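Late entry, written up from scratch paper. The run itself happened at the end of the previous shift, but nothing got recorded in the book at the time, so transcribing now.
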Amino acid sequence: MDYDYDHLPREERQRFIAIEERLRGASGRMPPVWEMQRRKEHLTNIRPRVARRLKVLSYVAIPTLIAVVLAIFAYRFGGLHFESELVLASALGTILAPVLIVDTWARWPFFKMPGSVEDLDRELSILATYIERKT
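Output as recorded:
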């Protein structure tokens, strides 16, 4: 398949190609113009909401990850003393299970959306290009 992303750096080109292949679906063809226009309008409308939601989720995920890594390092290097590794695993599970449940619940509406705001912007640019070519 021929792509128009030769002017981009390799990593950026691969991201654009992955997004375009996802848009093409199993048939290998781009959807009709009306469907692309509908998706573009939808993505444009939800972009601020997605950006806000992903920012809030990062405020929760990053400190949780740091706390878990610090707890594991402290345990491994003797800062924390547990009777067994099972106690450590259950303590981390008690902390992580609710965080993972809430994170999954918060991300559920976005599972069929682009993974980040940058990917959303890439998809919008691809859709705009194809709509412009077809009309």
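The chain has a mean pLDDT of 82.
(Scratch paper discarded after transcription.)
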